[in-house]
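Give me the fold.
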Amino acid sequence: MTNFHLITLFPEFFDSPLRAGLLGQARQRGLVEFSFHNPRDFSAGKFRHIDDRPYGGGPGMVMQGPPVAAALRDVARPGRILLLSPGGRPFTQDFAGELAGEQDITLVCGRYEGLDARLGNIFTITPACVGEAVLNGGEAAALTVIEATARLIPGFMGKAESAREESFAGGLLEYPQYTRPAELEGHPVPEILLSGHHARIARWRRDKALAATLNMRPDLLASAPLSREDATALAEIPRERPGRNLSFCLLHYPVMLDKKNSGVSSLTNLDIHDIARISRSYAMGPFYVVTPLSDQRRLLEDILRYWTCGPAAASNPDRARALACVRPAASLEEAAARLGEHAGVTPRLVASSASWPAKKNAPVPLAPRDVRDWCRNGPVLLCFGTAKGLAREAFARCEGVLRPLRFLDDNHLSVRSAAAIFADRILGDFF
């Protein structure tokens, strides 16, 4: 038996849900049991207050520590204590599996602006979050935890396979289900499900689960166990590719030569090759290399000619295809104008930097997800600086600045390494 102990101001909230359906049946069979402990019953005040104004000021009220502490101590065997909180550990199927092995689980349902934080110093409490929506209190979230956990307790479900094949159980969303009649208002059941060929049906269901996950929750694919067959199936699914709207721009001017002086830097063969290969790998737009020096542009053109039209093109066609995306430009303005002509829309310019903006009142830097969202709506030119990074004039030309890659530690990344990491954080495999 698993005992759920609920610390809640509204025990009546649970009256119907815990008596309905499978939960009600499991309760009757002795698989689960529930106890309720209302902090209001332990309030020492005349009016049974359990909230007060927050120290330091601010809106709303905070649940007081003493009545909640007393309610927790009223639980004889609290077991694992969870606080339902938007700032907690995400509640996942794996988390539910952990809890299903516990004999006692205590769920603290917060209200108002939350609980006095010192309760976390007195009790071993794990904050848990069931989603990114704001609720009136923790009761609805507690029901989510109870139902997701209880259904994994042996004997709760009619068939163990039912729990194993549901959404998230294997890291993917569930495949679509069908039942009789064979045709519903002109829509037939997929023929494969009527074939009786179990191996093909299993593959079809797996492919549909992959497609649903790619379409609705591509973030899950980053950690889902995928086979070679899964990867092939995913690659064949038509999907939006925002990478075509993202272009790199490698500036050799204006860049910082040291802490105070800006100027022009020289081309580096490795930067051109590696960033071109990154652009090709992530199916990005043209890669612009900016230098105002005519001899440097001629050098770049010679490199590109050798690899795309010369002897190297035949011996290394992959490199030729990558370097074919490189476009020389004399200035950032020219690169932006040429990308606008290529896309038919004026691009948005984004700067990259290894450090936070120097001005205290500068706009908050963009996250990679922000840039990905921009790419869904049109072309974006992401600018990188050689030498010591972009000069002030280049930043002034850009609409936003990306958050530094290594802002919690020292940054010793080369520009081509930074380009690769940004490409993956912005685009990844599934976006």
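The two ends are 44 Å apart (CA to CA).
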